[in-house]
Amino acid sequence: SSIKGCIPRGVLVWRALGQPLVRLAAMAKIGDPLDEFIDPGQLECLNQDKDNPVGNAFAAGDAFLASDKDVDSELLVKVQFRQPVKIGGIKIMGPAEEDNAPKAVRIFQGKTDIGFAEAADDESTQDLVLEADTVREGTAVPLRFVKFQSVQ
């Protein structure tokens, strides 16, 4: 489990449509985590539940990231790496119930001040449609490697 975010040119933003996320991970190669490069102090998440913040998504154990049920189920997660990294894939692990699993993720690179309106309207670096099994099992989803060669 790993990720970081939020430096100009290299910010990665995940806009998740669905319910709570359990864990997020970025990998240089599928199965090769980038945990050591995550800067936990720079993690940011819009619409997170105060009892289940974004840091939980990258921590070991059973803690998880959840959206604020009183506002909306969407999350906007910003991750910054301590140095430039190449990202080949991500894992998004969530609850087994299909209704609660994230269904779509929009990934943006280099957008430090993005909000929900921009995430909905702007062109993403890559969009992912997730199957419930992929989220439940935490299966790595390959990214267009050429688009994620120097992510900070």
Summary keywords:
mainly beta; 5-stranded antiparallel sheet; 152 residues; 8% helix
Description:
By secondary structure, this protein is mostly beta strands. Helices cover 8% and strands 26% of the residues. It contains two helices and nine strands; from the N terminus they run E-E-E-E-E-E-E-H-E-H-E. The protein has helices at residues 116-121, 132-137, and strands spanning 12-17, 23-29, 32-33, 44-46, 75-79, 89-93, 104-109, 126-129, 141-142. The protein has a five-stranded antiparallel β-sheet with strand order 4-5-1-7-8, with no helix packed on it. A hairpin with a 2-residue loop joins strand 2 and strand 3 (32-33). The chain starts with 11 loop residues before the first strand and ends in a 10-residue tail after the last strand.
Which spans of ≥5 residues are poorly predicted at pLDDT below 50?
1-11
Largest sheet: 5 strands, antiparallel
Secondary-structure element order, N to C: EEEEEEEHEHE
Strand pairing plus helix content: what structural class? Answer: mainly beta
Number of strands: 9
Global morphology: globular
The gyration radius over C-alpha positions equals: 14 Å
* Gap from first CA to last CA: 17 Å
Q: Percent helix among the residues?
A: under 10%
Average pLDDT level: 76
Strand order of the largest sheet: 4-5-1-7-8
Percent of residues in beta strands?
A: 25-35%
